[in-house]
Amino acid sequence: MPQGPYDFARTRAAVARVPAQARAAGAAEAGPDADAAVRGRGPGAPGVRGEHTHSEPPMPGVKAVVQRSSVRGQILDALRTALVAGELVPGEVYSAPVLGERFGVSATPVREAMQQLALEGAVEVVPNRGFRVVERGTRELAELAEVRALIEVPVMLRLARSVPAERWAALLPLAEETVRAASTGCAAGYAESDRAFHRAVLALSGNEQLVRIAEDLHRRSQWPLVSGPVLRGRANLVADAAEHTALLEALIARDLDVVCSLVTEHFTGAT
Fold it and tell me: Which of 99, 194, 196, 244 could disulfide-pair with 175, CB 3.0 to 4.6 Å?
């Protein structure tokens, strides 16, 4: 099975923070009975309809679900980081068992995390083989930037007219964090701080659905392309981050012309 030649040191380090007990719970899922018990079916599953459970304590089953969710969440975060960092290569097929070995967990939480990425459009299922990282071109990236601009620019301009200066000033630490992240040249680290900044700005609208949809589009726009450079260079990241600080300064000053120019450039420049 083809696997990408990239080092998964970053993602292994992220998963290493999962408590040993939780990793053990994930490994235990490899057995069919254990996996069925976690889902609430099969031998040892407490509370299954039609079974007598008077002598079985109900808590272990609940605890196993919580632990598995924790492992799956850690793996999902690690895979998202690997995707942005270029460690998961567009067009390559990755199997859950092989990735599980690299992360030190069973294949089950890896497979569940990959299925979530498939729902998000980052990978596609290859029957009997694993998951292929979706190949994306510049056209898709330009389309995502256009949709983001259609959603976020009008909202930012509306907020520019109504949100007091002190609320914008409170976001300066987030903007400064994007500058620090960009200066390291780490695309994955910058991607996370970039999303946090945009999420905080849009949260001022009070529209949770808007924030959720915009963040999904933002995350998809950060995936690597199949052609051209996999990662944006440090200079591009620094320039992008500088626009965050400039935007907040214009919002604090209520300079709507500059705000309009900056937010429009911010999205068109992202392509």
Answer: 244
Q: Please determine, for residue 3, whether its predicted confidence score (pLDDT) is greater than 50.
A: no
Q: Which residue has the tokens 């963040």?
A: 215
pLDDT at 269: 62
Strands (E), the chain: 93-94, 123-126, 130-133
What is the strand order of the sheet 130-133 is part of? 93-94, 130-133, 123-126
Element (H, E) at 159: helix 138-162
Residue found under tokens 């679900």: 65
Q: If you write DSSP's letter for every residue of 93-156 in order, what string do you get?
A: EE-HHHHHHHHTS-HHHHHHHHHHHHHHTSEEEETTTEEEEPP--HHHHHHHHHHHHHHHHHHH
| 267: helix, strand or coil | helix
Cα distance between residue 36 and residue 110, in whole Å: 17
Interior angle at CA 141, CA 211 and CA 74, nearest 5: 55
Q: How far apart are CA 205 and CA 156, in angstroms?
A: 9
Model confidence, pTM: 0.68
**Residue 140 to residues 18, 60, 170, 260, Cα–Cα distance (Å):** 35, 46, 34, 24
Which tens digits make up the pLDDT trace of 11-69? Answer: 455 454 444 444 444 444 444 444 443 344 444 444 333 344 344 444 343 333 334 55
CA 17, 194, 118, 86 dihedral sign is negative
In three-state secondary structure terms, 177 is helix
